[in-house]
Design a protein that fits this description.
By secondary structure, this protein is of the alpha/beta class. The protein starts with 5 loop residues before the first strand and ends in a 5-residue tail after the last helix. Bound molecules: adenosine-5'-triphosphate and magnesium ion (MG).
């Protein structure tokens, strides 16, 4: 078995937060230390070449995990390795790409200049930068914005230039903290496609997200965090219940009297422009309904068993965070 590219063992992080407490009536103000357990003994592995999604609601601890792996903050206890080496190893840092959650950009640099500057920070020679930067601008769809100052970029364009920055050194593993946040559906799809193309080139992608449908579409495996603790880890089809949750029946031209009867046994009922959607929980009732539609002047458009989605899993397993 090859060593996992990321190994996280019993990682715990407790932040100390200074809170100003007031006691009314006695006019007393004191400074209290409040401990926040952001990570509670987290253990997980990421394998080379996979797209790994770290999922969880706001405050679950996703950014904390990524910041520890990037060496930006230190764990309270536990440890992690990247490429088999302890955190902070310089040779490892050279093979990592990172897009932070709220990247800070120099407004007055143009797209090309920004990448050129970061290329210099990576120690890339002028020749290499001249070749690599146009390739990356092309990859993230910003060739025509190369000469535009970053202050004129939209949120989606900034996210994409940030991604290009994370890929400058052809990293073996890329860490992306919420790469799709704030993007419209087109922008999110572009980021998804980019992540898939990185995997095709053999890179490992570790990204965090709370946009479940995006993760569902591309992850080989996911870890689900809640309040700093691991709820589950594995391939999505292992995590999500294989159980069929409901049956969706779509039909058209169904006589109104029959629609009324079928509506009564449906858990969900939606009139669309041309068709009607009935959602039924029990299989035998769903089959009866299909037969009745077929034997009526109406037409059955589709009959689809529906499995649990990641969103339903979340709602079933994760308490709402405070
Ligand atoms: N510097 C800090 N000082 C004190 N508490 C912190 C600090 N950074 C994070 N926390 C707390 O730690 C917990 C985990 O935060 P973290 O940012 O890792 O969550 P997250 O999963 O990335 O959330 P989001 O989806 O909102 O980005 C939260 O309760 C947060 O308030
Ligand atoms: Mg975060």
């Amino acid at each position: 078995m090859p060593v996992p590219i990321v190994q996280i063992r019993n990682l715990t992080k407790i932040y100390i937060r200074d809170v100003i407490g007031t006691e009314f009536g006695r006019l007393k103000i004191r400074l209290k230390n409040r401990k926040v357990a952001a990570l509670k003994s987290l253990t997980l592995d990421v394998n080379e070449g996979e797209i790994f999604g770290l999922l969880g609601p706001n405050g679950a601890g996703k950014t904390t995990v990524i910041k520890i792996l990037m060496g930006l903050i230190f764990p309270t206890s536990g440890f992690a390795t990247l490429m088999g080496k302890p955190l902070g190893d310089k040779s490892v840092k050279a093979s990592i790409g990172f897009l932070p959650e709220n990247p800070y950009f120099y407004d007055y640099l143009k797209g090309y200049e920004f990448l050129n500057y970061y290329g210099q920070l990576y120690g890339m020679g002028a020749e290499k930068r001249r070749k690599k930067i146009p390739e990356l601008l092309e990859l993230v769809g910003l060739t025509s914005a190369a000469d535009l100052p970053l202050k004129g970029y939209s949120k989606g364009m900034l996210q994409r230039i940030g991604l290009a920055q994370a890929l400058l050194n052809d990293p073996r593993i890329v860490f992306l903290d919420e790469p799709q946040s704030g993007l419209d559906p087109f922008g999110r799809k572009e980021v998804r496609d980019l992540i898939l193309s990185l995997k095709e080139r053999g890179a490992t992608v570790f990204f965090s997200s709370h946009i479940l449908s995006d993760a569902e579409a591309i992850c080989d495996r996911v870890a689900i965090l809640s309040k700093g603790a691991l709820v589950n880890v594995g391939a999505l089809d292992e995590i999500l219940s294989a159980r069929i949750k409901a049956y969706e029946i779509e039909a058209m031209d169904v006589p109104e009297a029959l629609v009324g009867e079928l509506e009564k046994i449906s858990v969900q009922f939606v009139r669309r422009t041309k068709t009607i959607l009935f959602v039924i929980e029990k299989e035998d009732l769903a089959e009866q309904m299909v037969k009745r539609i077929i034997n009526s002047p109406g037409r059955l458009v589709s009959y689809t068993p529906r499995r649990e989605t990641l969103e339903e899993y979340f709602i079933r397993n994760i308490e709402k965070q405070q």
